[in-house]
Amino acid sequence: MDRFEPNLRIPGPTGLPPSVREVGARQMINHRGPEFAAMLGRILSGMKPFFGTSSDVAIVTTAGTGGLEAAIVNTLSPGDRVLAVSIGSFGDRFAKIARTYGADVTKIEVEWGQAADPAVLRGELQRENGYKAVLLTHNETSTGVMNPIPEPAAVVRELAPDALILVDSVSGLGAVPFEMDAWGVDVVVTGSQKAWMAAPGLAMIAASPRAWAAMEIATMPRLYLDLRAHRDSHAAGQTPWTPAIAVLYQVDEGIRLMQAEGAAGVFARHEACAAAARAGLTALGFELFADQRFASRTVTAALLPDGLDWKAFNAELKRRGLVLAGGQGKLTGKIFRLGHLGSVTLEEILGAMSVLEFTSIGMGRTVRPGSAVAAAQVAALELSGLTTPVAAVAGSGA
Ligand code: PLP
Questions:
Q1: Of 373, 380, 293, 290, which Cα lies nearest the Cα of 337?
Q2: Would you say 120 and 68 are in contact if contact means Cβ atoms under 8 Å apart?
Q3: Which of 60, 61, 65, 135 is the best mutation target for the ligand 1 pocket, counting ligand atoms within 8 Å of the beta carbon and taking the most?
């Protein structure tokens, strides 16, 4: 922790490790030259295990939303029936993109804070059998819910075997295990500014052989976002258009750091930080927003209690160097969100809890100093198997 840097605990963009910042400042290279081709090759092969795929991945210079748009316009035609399962604001956005390009969208609207219910999906797919695609959100950043994708994916594969499953994992992929091929998922979208520890600017999109085949007959308009152009160009070590080279440097370094830590280590760190965040916020007296059976491992949302004004609370947190995110859409002023993805460390979560304690006490809330930090630390230590002595210490005082 650094007193000259805020503790940026929003769910992306995430803080950058020092080596990632440094490589972002490097001189440009020829994006049609061998050095670029080598870097692109490293990034593509380094990412595939995190997608859980042996299929082609495309890297597009665009925000995550552009990646979602690419998923739609490359695989669908105007008039295609699409089933959008929305569990929050980003699920709504995915559905809106499909509708914007002329798909005939039916939406399953799940109560915010809940995960997609496979039984409801089953009912809809039994009732209607013409869907060309099903849209799912892996990690709904607006509510702090992580959908267990294998469950809805299995229902689609069983009842609508020809439907494509398009998944928004902008804020999930890289932080938690994902097995695109094994789960029968067709398109997965992620973004450089989330788990990959890089600046915003790149969307990474993996497509199954079925999805690549669908692109040959899909008729929605596309040029810049044409994934076939990206795939073909990647095969020659290039991108079809001039890419965000500095962000590619960063993703290259981010993946190098993730490989050095090992995927299992990356996932365990996210799990520990998520558990710590949930326990700490609960100890502070906040009610967690998401159904905890489906709690996200990259972002935690908590309800703002009556009488706690978000603007005033947030201003105090910021003054002490902690940057959280407020609620989005209909949750504005009702919840706040704490991001724990990318380069996040347990120490950063403990630091956040300490600031939340100070600030809560300063604003007249009843909080015992140290209680949130202790609860967060116990939760993380329990995951690392150190349950007995730590639980005993916590039980004796906290
Ligand atoms: N989908 C999810 C789940 C997200 O969290 C985000 C961004 O926070 C997006 C899509 C959109 O990404 P971008 O803001 O880069 O367009």
A1: 290
A2: no
A3: 65
Residue 48 above 80 pLDDT?
A: yes
Placement of tokens 């400042």 in the chain:
25
Query: 210-241 pLDDT, tens per residue?
Result: 999 999 999 999 999 999 999 999 999 999 99
Q: How far apart are CA 99 and CA 148, in angstroms?
A: 25
**Size of the chain in residues:** 398
pLDDT digits (tens, 9 = 90+) for 111-138: 999 999 999 999 999 999 999 999 999 9
pTM score of the predicted model: 0.96
DSSP single-letter state for residue 177? -
In this model, does residue 339 exceed pLDDT 50?
A: yes
Edge-first strand listing for the sheet containing 133-137 = 57-61, 202-207, 187-191, 164-168, 133-137, 81-86, 104-109
Structure token digits, residue 167: 């998944």
pLDDT value at position 4?
87
In ligand 1, the atom with minimum distance to the C-alpha of 203 is 15
Residue 376: partners with Cβ closer than 8 Å, 6 or more residues away: 276, 277, 279, 280, 283, 346, 349, 350, 353
Q: What's the confidence (pLDDT) of residue 396?
A: 41
Q: How far apart are CA 159 and CA 90, in angstroms?
A: 25
Which amino acid is residue 51, in one-letter code?
F
CA distance 203 to 191: 5
- C-alpha distances in angstroms, 324 versus 11, 174, 283, 308? 8, 21, 18, 15
Please tell me the distance from the alpha carbon of residue 308 to that of residue 285, in angstroms, as a whole number. 12
The burial of 398, by beta-carbon neighbours within 10 Å (0-12 exposed, 13-18 middle, 19 or more buried), is given as middle
Token code pair at residue 283: 């100890």
* Backbone dihedral angles phi then psi of residue 271, each to the nearest 5 degrees: -65, -40
**Which residues contact residue 30 at a Cβ distance below 8 angstroms, ignoring those fewer than 6 apart?**
36
**Closest Cα to atom 12 of ligand 1:** 64
**88 C-beta closer than 6 A to ligand 1:** no
Contact 305, 286 (CB under 8 A): yes
| Ligand 1 mean position, distance from CA 339 (Å) | 13
Indicate the burial class of 253 (C-beta count within 10 angstroms; 0-12, 13-18, 19 or more): buried
Residue 3 has pLDDT above 90, yes or no: no
Q: 76 CA to middle of ligand 1, Å?
A: 21
